[in-house]
Amino acid sequence: MLDRHLEPALRDAAARSPVVTLTGPRQSGKTTLVREVFRDHRYLSLEAPDVRARALEDPRGFLAQGEHLVLDEIQRAPELLSYIQVLVDENDRPGRFILTGSQNLLLMESVSQTLAGRTALLRLHPFSLSELRRCPPLDPRNLIHLESGGPPPRGRWQTLVDGFYPRIHDKGVPAREWLADYFRTYVERDLREVMQISDLRAFESFVRLAAARTSQELNLAALGDDVGVTQQTARRWLSALEIGFLATTLPPHHANYRKRLRKRARLHFLDTGLICYLLDIRDAEMLERHPLRGAIFESFVVSELIKSFAAQRSDAPLYFWRDATGHEIDVLIDLGERVIPVEVKSGETVAADAVDTLSWWTSIPSNPNRGGVLVHGGSESFDLKGFRVLPWFLR
């Protein structure tokens, strides 16, 4: 098992809180992690129908099976949360209950209503590139001062085509086969339960068309028109992707350094292997020639930043910036006291004008921020005109 960067935060949370709730997409490694970290806890999976039946028929007896319990896939029996609330109010010993769940919105609604103030909330994503490389976690707050390191054994396009779901790497399963099964399970099972989506064929078309818009401004009306559904339906289906941790949106940054800022959010799918599967990109060579390779590479960088913040138990303060004249910054990391602009270029060669957009943005008279980062497809790390240039593996 590869070390997960979230493990220290998970152990710390269990030493402080009576309940720890670990969320994340299906097959991100939640079960493996909690079983490894909490070996002395009794493990119970609510995915199994017989276990779930016992939990629902006799919740008090079910929760009395051990002093410390891991309850996997808690969203399958949310009724247990109220009983857990009573138990931890009577005895708030740290680490009593470790809960995992895959369905973000429904689980969080249940947890926030019943366990507010009683549980620590953590999120586990699929592997980061740093985890796959067995490197220390990326510090997203210190990108400008990152030390350089050697490239991974696999090239960037092969890395992106395979994606980052643990089973692909732990078991050596062919990525395309596994991702096909994963997506089919997600569509045919989870969406029926969570969103009551009846027209699964139309929804699958929606997801593939949305994947083709990764790293683009989100126009739900146009996306809905392309699928043949209303804008309201498209919005609801986008929520399904976010619930399943398959996609996210970066809002436009609120700082109005110039007039007439664009207000639409930017869409990013969170696993490049899944993007490639949805777009029928079958191998590294095909991705390298694909017209969307730059967009997919940008979503990879955004995903790595999101994972690095999650390992620190932080929501990623990521935005993008674009004005009406077409000037844009791919990612802004808003740390409160300062904002780090990040530009992303998939090519290996860094041209002399590669940081011109960063220079333009930092030179806006009302903008107090200085410095910035360019992530490129090559393997070199250096400074250019006052900006930090990082390789695609961010080391």
Query: What is the H/E order?
Result: HEHEHHEHEHEHHHHHHHEEHHHEEEHEEE
Strand content: 15-25%
The tally of structural domains comes to 2
Radius of gyration: 22 Å
Mean pLDDT: 91
> What characteristic shape results from the CA principal axes?
globular
Can you count the helices?
A: 17
- Report the uncertain regions: none
Defining key terms:
395 residues; six-stranded mixed sheet; 17 helices; 13 strands; 41% helix; 15% strand; globular
Question: How does this model look, in words?
Answer:
With 395 residues, the protein is of the alpha/beta class. The protein has two domains: 117 residues, Rossmann fold; 184 residues, no CATH class. The chain is built from 17 helices and 13 strands. A hairpin with a 2-residue loop joins β12 and β13. α11 packs across α12. The two termini are 23 Å apart.
Quickly describe the structure.
With 395 residues, the protein is α/β, with parallel strands linked by helices. Helices cover 41% and strands 15% of the residues.
Secondary structure elements and their pairing?
Layout: H1 7-16, E1 19-23, H2 30-37, E2 42-45, H3 49-57, H4 59-63, E3 69-72, H5 80-90, E4 97-101, H6 104-114, E5 119-123, H7 129-132, H8 156-162, H9 166-170, H10 175-194, H11 200-211, H12 220-227, H13 231-243, E6 247-250, E7 266-269, H14 272-278, H15 284-289, H16 293-311, E8 318-322, E9 328-334, E10 339-345, H17 356-362, E11 373-376, E12 382-384, E13 387-390
Parallel strand pairs: 1-4, 1-5, 2-3, 3-4, 10-11, 11-13
Antiparallel strand pairs: 6-7, 8-9, 9-10, 12-13
Helix pairs in contact: 8-14, 11-12, 12-13
